[in-house]
Amino acid sequence: MLPSNPAPTTVDQIQNLILESADFEDFLNELARFSAHQMAGEGDDALCGITLLRDRKAATIGWSSDSAREVDEIQYRLSQGPCLTAAEEEREVHVPDLFEEDRWGPDYADAVASHGLRSVLSVPFHLQGEARAALNLYSDVPRKFDEKATARARGYTREISQALRLAVRFSLHTDSASNLRATLESRTIIDIAIGIVMAQNRCSQEAAARILTAASSNRNVKLRDIAKSLVDSVGGTETRTHFEEPGRGQDRGEGRARVG
After folding, report:
1. What is the pLDDT of residues 33-73, one digit of tens each?
2. By residue range, what is the domain housing residue 206?
3. Over 50: is that where the pLDDT of 257 sits?
4. Do both 189 and 218 map to the same domain?
5. Confidence grade of residue 237 (pLDDT, cut at 50, 70, 90)
6. CA distance 197 to 187
7. Model pTM?
């Protein structure tokens, strides 16, 4: 008799989420839904959100439902609350009953309770300095998150911290690559425009750069947009624009354009 396949571990299931997700955002939302299911007790799902602090900004990067995202965002508007405290200070924060809570003033407790919620548990992930994050659990039952539930959440965040850390790192690299690509594309357009101005005015690269910069300043238009309009005009897609060196032609202002 062949042995039955063992039940997949939490790590196995997280790895499957990574493989099956279309992108970073899709993975985070699936992770939040999975987390809510894992943290559910006695057949009812808790609301779940995942808060990420990066570059001094807080955002819910995954949520099990719109309600979970909305109650997370209450804290961002107020700049205080259990998930921010848990992420910033990397410690667990438990709110047994919002009706008896005053650590963050009445505004926070009243706003979250207005969503029909009574208890909150925020448990930090350990991302080793790249960013900070917390798992936020909400329930409409007061004192829902007892020591057993807290231990389960603690163990769960420990298990998936590495997966989240890798996802955040991948996102950072993706953002950097996108920014670099945009910068290179912008730089290419400007370099081409400088070459056009050099040919039109028979001037040096430095003089051509000054002409474009002055045209950008005089027109209050971004340098890249000025460069793109010139490149497009040479390609025949727009009215031809000629930027002149100061003192040449009828236009005396450096970088002014003559359209013809």
Report:
1. 787 777 765 556 678 888 988 877 898 888 888 899 999 99
2. 180-259
3. no
4. yes
5. very low
6. 15
7. 0.60
Asked which of 173, 203, 232 is the last residue of a domain, the reply is 173
Order of strands, sheet of 47-54, starting from the edge strand that comes earlier in the sequence = 57-63, 47-54, 132-139, 119-124, 93-95
Q: Taking the alpha carbons of 223, 206, 187, 168 in that order, is the dihedral positive or negative?
A: negative
Residue pair 10/160 in contact (Cβ under 8 Å)? The answer is: yes
Establish how many alpha carbons lie within 13 A of residue 107's alpha carbon, considering only the half-sphere containing its beta carbon: 9
Tell me the three state secondary structure of residue 230.
helix
Domain shared by 127 and 184, yes or no: no
**192, 227 Cβ separation under 8 angstroms:** yes
**How far is Cα 144 from Cα 41, in angstroms, rounded to an integer?**
9
Query: Of 113, 141, 173, which residue is a domain's last?
Result: 173
